[in-house]
Amino acid sequence: MITVENLSVRFGSVEAVKGVSFHVPKGAAFGIVGESGSGKSTVLRALSGLNPDWTGRMEIDGTALSPHRSKDFFRRVQMVFQDPYGSLHPRQTVDRALSEPLEVHGIADIEPRILRALAEVALPPAVRFRYPHQLSGGQRQRVAVARALMSEPDVLLLDEPTSALDVSVQAEVLNLLSDLQVRRGLTYVMVSHNLAVVAHLCGTVGVMQGGVMVETVSADDLRAGNVMHAHTRALRTLCMALEEPA
Fold first, then answer.
1. Nearest 5°: phi and psi at 4?
2. Helices (H), the chain
3. Residue 244: its pLDDT value, please?
């Protein structure tokens, strides 16, 4: 479903992404992890069309991507951002946030689709006419996920979708995303600094350092410690230390 080959992104004299390549089969989930500044979110922004200044080759379902994307691309590929409060318009109700993608893409049956989307992300119908500030962080992120699903995409790009949430709420949102992937046959690319979060959702993980994808490893090998690169080992050790009880 997704092919990225030799992707490079430069900001002035700084090369933020250096020849990154990976492939994601249809219905699979691929995670990208790394420290702040490693280039992981820059990869996602190039893939999503938010950053048109890149070189290399990218494809979605066999169709080559150009720097400027078509309307159909933005129907098939949707993004869920890190901060659910910042990604929702503070003066728009949930109803407006969910109906707008349908209007943009000319999709009919708005009323039943909104009610179905709320049910799919386990939100009650009463949420529909509330504003973002009237919702909890977990509810806001569920709305953001519902909004991304309104155009019935094939691919979801997830930019640290749980990092702004409490630990207990993180698990709820991750389980929701996992259920939706199976139910809808979605393909995911998820970016995070947290190895445990990525390994929970993604079958394969790419580890980035200094703009380079230094290793690609299965989630099972990651859990077992069967990794080759020193940076992957360091991230894994740090993650395990953070999970230890005080």
1. -125, 120
2. 40-48, 71-76, 84-87, 94-104, 110-120, 137-149, 167-184, 195-201, 219-224, 230-243
3. 40
Q: Which has more confidence, 217 or 234? A: 217
- 6-187-199 Cα angle (round to 5): 85
Q: What is the pLDDT of residue 55?
A: 96
Q: Provide the pairing of β-strand 29-33 with 212-218.
A: unpaired
Q: How far apart are CA 44 and CA 33, in angstroms?
A: 12
Question: What is the number of other CB atoms lying within 10 angstroms of the CB of residue 63?
Answer: 13
Are the CB atoms for 189 and 32 separated by under 8 Å?
yes
Would you give the DSSP letter of residue 143? H
Q: Which tops the pLDDT comparison, 82 or 49?
A: 49
Looking at domain 2-243, its CATH class is alpha beta
pLDDT digits (tens, 9 = 90+) for 51-98: 999 999 999 999 999 999 998 999 999 999 887 778 888 899 999 999
Phi, psi of 136 (to 5 degrees): -75, 170
Sign of CA dihedral 89, 94, 98, 99: negative
Give the separation between CA 32 and CA 189, rounded to whole angstroms: 7
Q: Which of 173-177, 207-211, 227-231 has the highest mean pLDDT?
A: 207-211
Domain ranges, ordered by start, for the chain: 2-243
Distances (CA, A) of 36 to 33, 75, 166, 194: 10, 29, 20, 11
Rg (CA), the chain: 18
pTM comes to 0.90
Which residues, 6+ apart, have CB-to-CB distance to 3 below 8 Å? 23, 57, 58, 59
